[in-house]
Amino acid sequence: MSRVGKNPVALPQGVSIDLAGGLATVKGKLGTLKLPISSHVEVKVEGDKVWVKPITETKQARMSWGATRANLKNMVEGVSKGFTKNLEINGTGYRAAVQGKNLQLNLGYSHDVSYPIPEGITVKCEKPTSISITGFDKQKVGQVASEIREYRKPEPYKGKGIKYSDETILRKEGKKK
């Protein structure tokens, strides 16, 4: 039994959901998101709540039940509030700046890394060592943050590199004489 799937998804003011043709379309003040609905679950809108129920008691139906409910909740939260991921850059001379539609990263390589910012994502650099990624699609925000972090992952000895702001780096002790 899914514990996540039992709970309804509350629709806040200004968010509407349309269920047609096996596709859920969520519209809000920040944008529109679409989700294909699995044939193993049934989605119903009652008032300002969205209920997800499995059609059968198969393993696939139980898996789709909780996943569909969680995806719908993330979509509703995204179009109403949005999502933000914060990255921190540690290292001497490491810095970031937004130039037009690109994020310029100076990470100690012989060249600057230029990352093109995708549509629907906003990137800000208040300080040269902090990056804020904002958008209404949770998957896309996380993917962009992960791709930026991949350019220079934090290393365990000095902690140099790009890390999430809430991430802790397990530090290792260096060589001893």
What structural class should be given to the helix and strand makeup? alpha+beta
**Tally of structural domains:** 2
Poorly predicted parts: none
Strand order of the largest sheet: 11-12-7-13
CATH architecture of the largest domain: Alpha-Beta Complex
Give Rg in angstroms: 21 Å
CATH class of the largest domain: Alpha Beta
Helix content: 10-25%
Task: Give the N-to-C terminal Cα separation.
Answer: 57 Å
Give me the strand/helix succession. EEEEEEHEEEEEEHE
Q: How would the global form be characterised? A: elongated
Beta-strand segment tally: 13
Mean pLDDT: 91
**Range of strand content:** 35-45%
Structure description:
Belongs to the universal ribosomal protein uL6 family. Residues 12-82, 91-164 form the Large ribosomal subunit protein uL6 alpha-beta domain. The protein is of the alpha+beta class and 177 residues long. It has 2 domains: 9-80, Ribosomal protein L6 (Outer Surface Protein A, domain 3); 83-164, Ribosomal protein L6 (Outer Surface Protein A, domain 3, Alpha-Beta Complex), CATH 3.90.930. It is built from 2 helices and 13 strands; from the N terminus they run ββββββαββββββαβ. The protein has helices spanning 59-80, 138-150; strands at 9-10, 16-20, 23-27, 32-36, 41-46, 49-54, 83-90, 95-99, 102-106, 113-116, 121-124, 130-135, 161-164. The strands form 4 sheets. The protein has a 4-stranded antiparallel sheet with strand order 11-12-7-13, with helices on one face. A 3-stranded antiparallel sheet has the order 1-6-5. A hairpin with a 2-residue loop joins strand 5 (41-46) and strand 6 (49-54). The chain is elongated. It starts with 8 loop residues before the first strand and ends in a 13-residue tail after the last strand.
